[in-house]
Amino acid sequence: MPSRTPAGLAALNEYLKRKRGFDFTGYQPASIERRVQKRMGAIGVSNYADYVDYLEVHPEEFEILFNTILFNVTAFFRDAAAWEVLARRVIPRMLASKSESGPVRVWSAGCASGEEAYSLAILFAEAMGAKGYRERVKIYATDIDEAALARAREATYDEREIAGVPEQLLAKYFERADGRYAVRKELRRNVIIGRHDLSQDAPVSRVDLLVCRNTLMYFSAEEQSRLLTRFHFALNDGGVLFLGRGDSPRAGANRFAPIHLRSRIAVKVARPKLDLRDRLTHIKERGALAPDESRGAVDRNVRLSESALDSVPMALLVVDARESLVLANERARLLYALSPTDLGRPIHELDLTSRSAEIRSSIEQALAGRLADPLRDVEWHTAGGETKWLDVHVMPLSDSDEAISGVAIAFVDVTVAKRLQRMVVNSNQELEAAYEELKSTHEEQETAGEAFRSMIDELETTNEALRSANQELESMNDELRSANAELQTINGELRQRGEELSALNALLESILTGLPGGVAVVDRKLDVLVWNHRARDLWGLRADEAVGRNLLNLEIGLPVERLEQPVRDCLSGRRDFVEIRLDATTRNGRALESRVTCSPLLDGEHRVAGVIVMMEDLDATQLSESRRGDRVRREAELRS
User: Fold this and answer.
1) What is the SS3 string spanning 533-567?
2) Residue 410: which residues within 8 A CB-CB, separation 6 or more?
């Protein structure tokens, strides 16, 4: 199939493969193009060639681009209902099928920052106990994003990120440290984290559970089918595949059977199917055909049988005793867009009109030896937008022992008869409507005179209502004039308060300017409210760059992380004044010793509203004091 990726985007992909080993060929082209162009627009680049040049000059752009493309979104126990199905139905059945000492291998593909991998670890530890988990379970967590993998190895998360973990599990498997939650070492030890490209690298093999949630949706349909083939290979027989709500299971419908369709949990299946030619050949090998019949005769019989089935003037399907599709003639293949890969699929996975449930019920009756009544006037919408009506006949099929071995489903096209029937019904309805219309016309003429008289009465009533409304409008106008006068008074008061506020701001600015050190005022969330010019001169950060940002996130020459505890002590009221000395570096690169003092900022009700942080250059202060002392001594000498 020819690529629909733009030439410039293809060239960029080749460059990324050559430089960083990252390949997005299998991703959905429209999604990749949209995200790359978003990044190009952010840096002001108009075409792909210029963007490649930009990457050459700015290597830090690679990480930003990969984060934009990969768009990592994950959480602990994301989609809780699906994880509940996994914990209650799938994992116990999986463990029951293994010996008591048998290893359990799990692959979390596209693990991002590790939340889902550690969610799996928690479920297996809960199901097996600490000893069983430690001795038997291996969880392989892989992703293509190195930055996300680094976070997964660190295994620490903030309160927002662990919101999905139940309280009892949080206390059992996490440790609290520095306001974050770290996964306990006993749980982390069995989680193996590494880089893996789903499109290029060989899959992890012999796994019992493969979790790849909301990752396939970023790939094209062809690539999804290829990846599901790899997943099928990676899983042990009977292994379980757990996809995300955004992933479509259709591409792997003939490789996996659903356990819980809504939760996107399926089991690996391997049911080889024989087509008509293979079945006839198998019959010959068993002796059903005469010994002197050649392979050519078998081929002719096969072609004759296939031709006969295709010439039947109705769609015909054959389903075996396991309710799997084993045969479809040409009309059925055209009607339901079936392909050779659909042979062997369960009949409930095929889209057989809106009444598929009734068809499956008839199949079950036929397999039980009971002849089901035909389904009449089943509506079907073709791919071209045409509507057809079908009569569906389900008939049991017997083998040589007269046992029910399958059913034949015939779809008889009754569209022409249905349309003629509808035409007759519509004609009768139109005649009845015309007769009713004539009757209603006569009645309307009789009531028209009375309606006219009633209209005159209504007009008089309306006139009275209008007069009343006019009086109400005049009253409202007076009220609006009064309200306008009040608003003007309020506006004058607001203007006067604005002038007073401007004077206070000017006074505050004068005070901050006259202070010898840099001053920062932070609120209770440690966000900067005030940043004076001395702070700008010391650290090279303008007020518009500092105000609104968290003090602990400012990138200045002062180790701001050491200010967190003093500031919080002032905010909590434990201390009224804190002084510390810190080694720092000015914006010009000069090393200095800085004296930092923190004191509470009180509001009008004497409550702590924030903290005033003053940062002084002790070296400059001492030099200034020394010079002032020299000047005083010289003046004394002159006077003497």
Assistant:
1) HHHHHHHCCCHHHHCCCEHHHCCCCCCHHHHHHHH
2) 314, 315, 316, 392, 393, 395
Nearest in space to 110 (alpha carbons), one of 2, 208, 220, 242: 242
Reported as a single tens digit per residue, the pLDDT across 136-191 is: 999 999 988 888 899 999 999 999 999 999 999 999 999 998 889 999 999 999 99
Contact 633, 548 (CB under 8 A): no
> Which phi and psi (to 5°) does residue 550 adopt?
-70, 135
SS3 content of the chain, % helix, strand, coil (to 5): 50, 20, 25
Here the tokens at position 461 are 């009533």
pLDDT digits (tens, 9 = 90+) for 527-550: 999 999 888 888 989 989 989 999
Cα Dmax for the chain: 142
The 8-class DSSP code of residue 372 comes to P
CA distance 345 to 340: 10
How far apart are alpha carbons 315 and 332 in whole angstroms?
A: 4
Bridging pattern class, strands 104-109 and 137-143: parallel
SS3 string of 312-362?
A: CCCEEEEEECCCEEEEECHHHHHHHCCCHHHCCCEHHHCCCCCCHHHHHHH
Q: Look up tokens 């190895």; give the residue.
A: 153
Find residue 27's DSSP bridge partners: 219
Q: How many CB atoms lie within 10 A of CB 311?
A: 10
Q: What does residue 609 show for φ and ψ, rounded to 5 degrees?
A: -100, -15
DSSP letter at 114 equals S
User: Could you give phi then psi for residue 467, rounded to 5 degrees?
Assistant: -60, -45
77: region left, alpha or beta (phi > 0 left; psi from -120 to 50 alpha):
left
Structure token digits, residue 53: 């040049």
Dihedral angle over CA of 351, 355, 358, 359, nearest 10: -40
d(CA 517, CA 595): 9
The sheet with strand 104-109 has its strands ordered as: 191-195, 137-143, 104-109, 207-212, 235-243, 265-268, 256-260
Q: In what order do the strands lie in the sheet with 156-157?
A: 156-157, 180-183, 174-177
